Amino acid sequence: MRTWIDRLGACRLAVVLGTAALQVVVGAGSVYAQSPTPTGGTAPAAARGLRAGIFARTLHGELTLATKDGTRVVLYARGVISVGSGTVSVATRDGQTFSFDVTDKTRVRAKGTAIKFGQLETGDRAMVFGVRNATGGWDAILVRCVRSASGAAPSSAQAAPNP
Prior knowledge:
Layout: H1 4-25, E1 34-36, E2 42-44, H2 45-49, H3 54-57, E3 60-67, E4 70-84, E5 87-91, E6 97-110, E7 113-114, E8 125-132, E9 138-147
Parallel strand pairs: 6-9
Antiparallel strand pairs: 1-2, 3-4, 4-5, 4-8, 5-6, 6-7, 8-9
């Protein structure tokens, strides 16, 4: 059985986050300026600036998403990670630290491909999405490594399923 995050997909979640942030910061009326796209069409300014703008500057936040079964709270945190046995913690630039449990449902990605949780290293930079678990903590549903501790993008040559 597929989970709601599999159906929604990380990309749709990113669009939801970015769109909500853009509406708050920019205002709904000013985000429709048009510009050329590589295919010759036009794209709203909101779509162009999503990855490089608001979403890229978001350090952390809780979002309440509507689902067919009600609502779901998702925690997003971006920063330097510390990897433990079955856990990952994210230290953000504003001094906050968020801890997530890693489960068999956690997906770990780098360079657009799946990698093993064991390939992450303390000091890597990552974005982590999580949902509340039965104990009140957070379970990581997606860890997306954006830069290894050495400063380079993480290697995805040894792609494999997670724990």
